[in-house]
Specification:
2 copies of one chain form a homodimer. Chain A is of the alpha+beta class. Chain A folds into 3 domains: 12-103, OB fold (Dihydrolipoamide Acetyltransferase, E2P) (Beta Barrel), CATH 2.40.50; 137-272 and 422-547, Bira Bifunctional Protein, Domain 2 (BirA Bifunctional Protein, domain 2); 290-411, Gyrase A, domain 2, CATH 3.30.1360.30. In chain A, 29% of the residues lie in helices and 25% in strands. The radius of gyration of chain A is 30 Å and the shape is globular. The two termini of chain A are 56 Å apart. At the A-B interface, strand 1, helix 3, helix 4, strand 6 and strand 7 of A face strand 1, helix 3, helix 4, strand 6 and strand 7 of B.
């Protein structure tokens, strides 16, 4: 037996007991003929004491230990004279009588502490050491808790977890697939699923009624901080339900998770239509932890010989409270912020509403204080506030103003990580028009049902058709999304036609689903939560990478495993493949 | 709202209530101006009644329904005059007042009944209809229950479920990998994991202490009935433990699953060494639901001028109780059985111990009844029993006799599906010698630890070294296996050397693990259960295929999705791949 207890469980009530512990040497301190060692395992830290006077040989042995050595010790529990109130075991220490080195350690390439001196690259190469750090491990413990609680909640509601295959067929619609050559079927490839969408719909056709799966999905996209080639979804589907049932069930799940994992009781989630979210916040995933809503002022700005506004489709403002005292430097920073190529505004106009009631603006050449006051009034600005104005094409400007709003929210401390504001965004448009390709794309996916009252518009005004589609947004992050599905094969055909599929193409790609719909498909719908993002929100992380045990870098590489890598000629031959020079 | 209740929940206590149900038309019976419909959903079947006299229009509408139509009905609950005691809803029926067809259905290509008329191929092509059949769906419900209970048990013991990556590096050791070309790293490939073995060991190095994962694994092997290219493992690893801890923890899991899922209380599992299992049953996964153990009789048979036995390395018998009356035809059948190329015996010798005490044998030319009696005595045969004898090279003959024993066990009804006999097989050999390649292979895998007391034999007699490796066997099926791992980098190097790896090869393939061992690896070990096989044992199935929602056929094809398939030239170009002609 390697241990009687873990390093996190001994207390004053265990005084004088003999115990055996095993773990890693976290810290060594020498002090007046004594050696103190912090012994660490997943469960905590316990202080070990070696006394030169009472046991010189043992003390000598302890002297040879280094950081991250794996040791086993036996000894007696004593009360600490110098208690540490910050850790649960801080009132006791072990007077060690036996010490065994289970495994020595080289000096680690970075310190295994909460705050480490290791940069990103080296921590990824030695991820197994990085994972020893308490905050990183805590993220994965949180991930386990969230997944476990999700299963408990859904199982309780009669959802069945069904595993769908990882080796499926390639579907050109959507993002790029990862593919897997088949040795047994030369020249043919499986694809890794971007989501189990069609398979979960087939399970509904099969009468499974309530399905879920916590499942790896794959997309061969160019990567960013919050994207990984493989990611995990909480994927769900229900039959004989309407949108309201899905929203209630998964609002329930979200509340359950916050209560179980973080002991936070959330109020009912507000709902907002896509159109409203765009108008008020310029985003389909608004961060509603703070206001600073968009105020359209085009009508107030027109006809005063200011061409920039006169020629703009859209002029809108946000009001930053108590920011009238912003310096020139601060205003320049924000101007540069909105002019960055990622945002792309051509400039930033401000109106200062000074505390004394006077009004100053970067456009006071064109507008009188009285005119500017009408803008301030519409934005409910008070003396001391600062108005920012952007203008241009509607959608583009909304996005720019949204970025500025979020930046101001951060600067003003309105985006607290432990303030959780959930929101349902509903009534998404069914289709999105791609100007470049001159065709419609499905906003959600081709299986999403139009709202019944909008079906008549599918021919006359496809862009105005709203879908029974919804997103769950927490603190401005899209955590989940789903829709009520089409279950009528005629409507599905019509949808494919709108998306520019010929009958043959639709049949070739989704024939199995369209055929299945011929044999009694029930009304159904579903939702998928991004587990990685959900965990990162719970953990207060900015990137999903630190809630994944072994993430890949921005080139899709696992630098620890050194994957991907070249295959042997023999492996390539067996797969009937040749590499072309890149 | 599509329904107030499911089709499985209404009882006599709900009498006279108005309800709305939705589901599939299972069966339609017309009888004296009445139409009776069995309405089916996942939860059960409820009888609907339409009465020509009270509502002719509705009855007319019901007349138009067909099998597998999806309908919604409202009506009142009435007591059935003709009760069906076989289903929980059999005491009531719904007097329908409203009927809505939610979706019609074509006539299905096979009947959706417990016993269907559909062959394997058509059921796989229309798997979504096959999954509507109660026994198939029940297998997947069972799978959900087993996975859910497994997680509950392990979570309770502080195991953390950690997701390991699906896109990893290729390791030539072991079975063939499925590979995934990387678009971002031209000419390089990921591999899909055959198991998370090395990653879970890294998690132990990271101090995760107790890890599990229910995880898809992949092997590009030629397929058989009980193999699939993708399969699911309950994968576990623990730190600071010995073999005994693993056996107890996972015997506990197995008992918990049988109790929770099937309400069966299992006694403690017997343990048997690999050597004993081979000697007594000729198998490392013996079916101990019945005896019929091997009896070696080489010493009793030698020197009687029967060259076949004299020249054989091994002569052994099994005793089939009460089979002395077997006919010539039965004996011929069994002789043909052992002579099949898959088994490969050259013949079968029998000794009949007649009820009257006389002895007859196919070798009574060579042996007197007294001599034959010594064989019978050693096998504890009683009058009325039948002895089968096989001979030849030891290992080959043991395998043949094992097959014969299992066949006899089946014929005699000793292998009941609901009789669950669990067994730990322990002390596996560390290495296996491959005559053809003239080298040792790891019996389990290269990370398995030799028994400490056998380490000294690694140089002198590698074949005799036993490993701290163990298998869980239920009813002759290997359900799980694992080992205590090497955690000392010197011992790991020695092991790789025994397996014929150069230092460079070992470093290239497993460098990340050997490096990790330099930084304080704890003693650790683990086990993996095959979930597919575990479910099939619980379900009493012969193949794993029917406990998988969307299995592949023997050519690795998903005939429903028609995967794998060819890629477009554009996709191939993006991946820098060319197909060679096969």
């Amino acid at each position: 037996m390697y241990r009687t207890h873990t390093c996190g469980e001994l207390r004053l009530t265990d005084l004088n007991n003999n115990v055996t512990l095993a773990g890693w040497v976290q810290r060594i301190r020498k002090f007046g003929g004594m050696i103190f060692i912090d012994l660490r395992d997943r469960y905590g830290i316990t202080q070990l004491v070696f006394n030169q006077q009472t046991n010189a040989t043992l003390c000598e042995q302890a002297n040879g230990l280094g950081r991250e050595f794996v040791i086993q010790v036996s000894g007696t529990i004593a009360e600490r004279s110098n208690k540490n109130p910050n850790i649960p075991t801080g009132e006791i220490e072990i007077i060690v009588s036996e010490l065994k080195i289970l495994n020595p350690s080289e000096i680690p390439p970075f310190t295994i502490e909460d705050e480490t001196d290791g940069g990103d690259d080296i921590r990824m190469k030695y991820r197994y050491l990085d994972l020893r750090r308490t905050p990183v491990r805590a993220n994965l413990e949180l991930r386990h808790q969230i997944a476990f609680a999700t299963r408990a909640y859904l199982n309780n509601l009669n959802f069945l977890e069904v595993e769908t295959p990882v080796l499926v067929g390639s579907t050109p619609e959507g993002a790029r697939d990862f593919v897997v050559p088949s040795r047994m079927n030369p020249g043919e490839f499986y694809a890794l699923p971007q989501s189990p969408q069609t398979l979960k719909q087939l399970l509904m056709v099969s009468g499974f009624d309530r399905y879920f799966q916590i499942v790896k999905c794959f997309r061969d996209e160019d990567l960013r901080a919050d994207r990984q080639p493989e990611f995990t979804q909480i994927d769900c589907e229900m039959s004989f339900i309407e949108q309201e049932d899905i929203l209630n069930t998964f609002e329930g799940l979200t509340k359950y998770l916050f209560k179980t994992v973080k002991n936070i009781s959330l109020p009912d989630f507000p709902r907002m239509s896509y159109a409203e979210a765009m108008n008020r916040f310029g985003s389909d995933k608004p961060d509603i932890r703070f206001g600073m809503e968009f105020v359209e002022i085009k009508d107030l700005t027109t006809g005063k010989d200011f061409g920039v506004f006169d020629n703009a489709e859209y002029v809108a403002a946000i009001c930053a409270e108590n920011c009238a005292s912003y310096t020139r430097k601060q205003l320049d920073e924000l101007t540069n912020f909105v002019k960055r190529p990622q945002i792309g505004a051509s400039g930033l106009i401000y109106v200062r509403y000074e505390v004394d009631g006077s009004i100053k603006s970067s456009v006071d050449k064109f507008y009188t204080p009285e005119e500017l006051k009408t803008w301030l009034d519409r934005a409910n600005a008070k003396p001391g506030d600062l108005l920012f104005v952007l203008c241009g094409k509607r959608e583009k400007t909304q996005k720019q103003l949204c970025e500025l709003r979020l930046e101001m929210g951060s600067r003003l401390g309105f985006r607290k990580k432990d303030d959780y504001q959930c929101l349902w965004v509903v009534d998404f448009p069914l289709l999105e028009f791609d100007e470049e390709l001159n065709r419609y794309f499905a906003k959600h996916h081709p299986f999403t049902s139009p709202k019944p009252e909008d079906i008549s518009k599918m021919d006359s005004d496809p862009g105005a058709v709203r879908a029974n589609a919804y997103d769950l947004v927490i603190n401005g992050v899209e955590i989940g999304g789903g829709s009520i599905r089409i279950f009528d094969s005629e409507l599905q055909k019509k949808m494919f036609k709108l998306l520019g599929f010929s009958n043959e193409q639709a049949q070739a790609q989704f024939g199995f689903l369209m055929n299945a719909f011929q044999y009694g498909a029930p009304p159904h719908g579903g939702i998928a939560f991004g587990l990685d993002r959900l965990v990162s929100i719970f953990a207060g992380l900015d990137s999903i990478r630190d809630c994944i045990a072994f993430p890949k870098n921005n080139s899709g590489r696992d630098v620890m495993l050194d994957a991907p890598s070249q295959l042997s000629q023999e492996q390539l031959d067996e797969l009937y493949l040749k590499i072309k020079n890149s």
